[in-house]
Amino acid sequence: MAQPTDPVESSSPRADFLAFLASLFLSKIADQVLLFLVPLVVFQTTQDVGWSGLAFAVEAFPRFLSFPICGALCDRISPVRLMRWSQVLRAVICASGAICASVFGGAGWLIAVSALCGVLTTQGAMAREVILPQVFKKHSFEKVLAYSQTADQLGAVLGPVVAAVLLMQIHWQAAVGITAIIFVLADGAMAYWRRTTRVRLRPRETSQGNMVAAVKTALAHVIGLPGLRRLVIQAAGVNLVVGVTLASSAALVTGVHARTAGYYGALQTAGAIVTVLVLMGIAHISIPVRKLGLAGFSLIVVGGLLTALSPSAWGYAAGYLLVIGFDKMFNIYLRSSRQRVIPAADYGKTTGVMTLLNNLTQPLAGLAIGAFAAEWTAGKVILVLTLGMALLGCLSVLAGGRPAMAERAE
């Protein structure tokens, strides 16, 4: 017998849409504050690029390893409920971590808070991924993704600014406490969105199979469905460069290029602004999905080469903006392509496994910075990983099977 379904669409679509995006926007601000604080506080404490990269890896691994479980849960439990749990628990963790760090001291509390919140961020992101194709059916999925990611990136624009302003006024422990308040506001917007909904999601699965069976089903889809292996390999390459950029940016900007924390925050904000402009262009201009993927992949390779080889802060900034700005363009290609192929009943579990495989290279890039930056310099590590991305792109062509985008995507 099917489980009760969940309300998802409003009698007042505009209010519903804005509340949904407001929750995403506020949650992203809070997440960005934590992501801003971890590498910067660790580098300022240790003055070591390697430790900054290792801290990034410790924070990122739990976030990515939890994707299969979080995705499978979305096929079994109300994704609306999972989104709310995600935000409430992140608020509790931030408040508890801020208190513990103030009482006992040490940057380890910040890393622990960020790692735990990263897992919950994954759960919220997976729940949203399951909801989106069902909520806004009147629009193309590419347009829905563009608008939702625009809200996400507007949060990313303000997140580093909020973090930088907070650090100029208060200690990082207090900044983490304020982050808890932002998560509470995000949950308030989600509660309003849920109260104004009427239409229902499709029924969730009633299978009593365990998580291992769910992961096996997802892996079978990744291996067997046309084009999914190709997408995994391409995304793994992209995340090599995105990961090494995120892991090394604080140290390279404030250390190697001798710029201030304010400049670092401004650079992060500029990257988010470029991303918003790219996403708004995708939302208003019809571009074939396959061309989105090719353009995004190519520009990220160029950006990685610039960050690795440029001797000036401005050249590094240009490369950083290409990597961060066009990552979401590639992301729309990836998400739109897999949504066309994965069966609806297995969408959560399969997307979770794919996202794990796609993103494993991102924390590995952080580990590479930690392990080899002292011997090779960060620039050489970035260069090697960028060339690795280009190689994976070439290998994806040989992965077999038709591209995941059907011809109707064109």
Structure summary:
With 410 residues, the chain is mainly α.
Draw up the topology in text.
Layout lengths: L6 E4 L2 H34 L2 H17 L1 H8 L4 H26 L3 H28 L5 H29 L2 H24 L1 E4 L10 H14 L3 H29 L4 H24 L4 H21 L3 H27 L7 H13 L1 H16 L1 H20 L13
Antiparallel strand pairs: 1-2
Descriptive report:
The chain is mostly helical and about 400 residues long. A two-stranded antiparallel sheet has the order 1-2. The longest helix is centred in the first third of the chain and has 34 residues. It is globular. The N terminus and C terminus are likely disordered.
Q: How many strand units?
A: 2
Low-confidence stretches: 1-13, 402-410
Write down the overall geometry.
Answer: globular
H/I helix tally: 15
What does the radius of gyration come to? 20 Å
Percent of residues in beta strands? under 5%
User: Major beta sheet, specifics?
Assistant: 2 strands, antiparallel
- What is the distance, rounded to the nearest whole angstrom, between the alpha carbons of the first and last residues? 39 Å
Strand order of the largest sheet: 1-2
* Helical content class: over 70%
**Would you tell me the structural class of the helices and strands?**
mainly alpha
SSE order, one letter for each helix or strand: EHHHHHHHEHHHHHHHH
Mean pLDDT: 80
